[in-house]
Design goal:
This protein is α+β, with helices and mostly antiparallel strands and 269 residues long. The chain has six helices and 16 strands. Helix content is 19%, strand content 35%. The radius of gyration is 25 Å and the shape is globular.
């Protein structure tokens, strides 16, 4: 690195030298460009390991960005970015492959279905600390059907309404995540079952006053027959649950409040 003095005031690149200003300084700094060229990275055998890593990471990123849709939009309640966590899970699943093939290892959540069970969408106020009742969830995998049993909720004891909003509702979601494989023809990672990767069915309860007693109930949510016909062993079925808070909108109807709520994956099968 060199500091440019005198009348020379250019910024940008000139042959193999880049000129730029550093934040907080008026001086122009000159630096030679580092690293191999794009052509070398793409073809040189020396960088085969780098290319394998890049190819697999693209697959993990694709897995994470699509898998979050199996939560049925409940990631909107998260207080942190879920996608990087799912990306990392994809990479860990690759490492578990029994016959490693660097650069083309599969992402098989179906072999480790419990990996997402209990996954919280919130770190600061996890689901079980906000809704303090013993909720249980069951999955009928063959019929892509989920049942959530919710005991009576006495809100002054069982519900932690941090923002003191006037209403809340319960949300149950059944969703599916497909394993992913490297496709030689497309030169990319693709879902084993495209029609069931990042798909979901959402069931919302009615809005309840935040100061009330809500009777015990059972919420049942099921995906379509067309989706059931696509089910294979390469699919992981998830049951997610959330509590979301709302307020009165400009038209007098109850509307959800952004980021007001929490959720988690109850079960996976």
């Amino acid at each position: 690195m060199a500091i440019v003095k005198g009348v020379l005031q250019l910024q940008g690149s000139l042959e193999n030298v880049t000129y730029y200003k550093r934040r907080g300084s008026d001086q122009i700094i000159a630096r030679t460009k580092q690293g191999p060229s794009k052509e070398k990275l793409a073809t040189d055998p020396k960088y085969a390991g780098f290319r394998n890593h890049q190819r697999e990471w693209k697959g993990c990123a694709k897995f994470g960005s699509l898998a979050r849709y199996a939560f049925g939009g409940l990631h909107r309640l998260a207080d942190y970015n879920l996608t990087p966590v799912l990306n990392g899970m994809g990479k860990n699943l690759m490492k578990k492959e029994p016959d490693p093939n660097p650069g083309k290892r599969s992402i098989r959540l179906s072999e480790h279905k419990q990996g997402l069970e209990g996954f919280n969408f919130n770190k600061k106020n996890p689901f079980n600390t906000v809704l303090r009742v013993g909720i249980t969830g069951q999955i009928d995998r063959e019929n892509l059907l989920a049942t959530v049993t919710i005991p009576r909720i006495k809100t002054d004891i069982d519900l932690v309404n941090i923002q003191r909003l006037p209403y809340f509702r319960l949300i149950a979601v059944i969703g599916t995540v497909s394993d992913m494989y490297y496709d030689e023809t497309e030169e990319a990672y693709v879902p084993a079952v495209l029609g069931l990767h990042g798909t979901s069915k959402v069931l919302n309860s009615t809005w309840y006053p935040s100061q009330s007693i809500v009777p015990g109930q059972i919420m049942t949510v099921q995906m379509s027959e067309a989706q059931q016909s696509l089910l294979t062993n390469e699919i992981t079925v998830l049951l997610s649950m959330a509590v979301e808070f709302g307020t009165v909108g400009v038209d007098g109807e109850t509307v959800e409040v952004k980021y007001a709520g929490c959720g988690k994956v109850l079960n996976s099968k």
